[in-house]
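Ticket #4471: structure output looks truncated?

Reporter: J.K.
Steps to reproduce: submitted the chain below (210 residues) through the standard prediction queue, then opened the result file.
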Amino acid sequence: MDAAQETRYNPFGMDEDCRNCEGLCDVRERVVHGYGDAGADFVFVGERPSAGAERTGVPFTGDAAGERFQDVLGQIGLNHSLPTSDEPEIENAYLTYLTRCRHPDRDPTDAEVATCEPFLNADLRMINPEIIVPVGERALAEIGTEYTTTPADDLDVVEHHAERIRGRGFELMPMIHPGSMTTEQADAFVTAFLDLLDTDYRQTKGRRGR
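Returned output as attached by the reporter:
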């Protein structure tokens, strides 16, 4: 964890009482802000909190998909706690979403994604990661449109799962949502990520030594 931060949860102190989305704030249980290492090289971005993450308040936890995700992080050396932990010991990774609130009956609207975008942009600006990992199709579409020159129609999370995509200021490495990943796809991501760690992936930005 970054030496200057005091907590893994919402380390930048973002608004936990945000009420910018009419019709969503009254049905959510809580705002689920980012969690992890504020100096991370890797930022994982999903579409929205699951019911489990809304319960725990921590992205990618609280259910079977979150447990699988945390298991993958453990295999690649970014999580030092059990996959079932509601407060995982994340190192060199930061977990967040396109939208920080969960509607119980539907996916986020385009307007809600746009309204929440300043939170994500602030995370990325302050963390300045090397690699963004869009988790799921919606996250890949939104982040790919913003941070690559690749047409959105050419971005497919299954086709590009565990592949490195050159972006504007970052590289992307998409991940199929853990709730949909097969064992083979999970293994492929782990293998590709471990290969990435053996490269000079920090070279382009000259980040400080960790």
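Triage note (M.O.): checked the attachment and the full token line is present. The longest strand covers residues 42-46.
Status: closed, working as intended.
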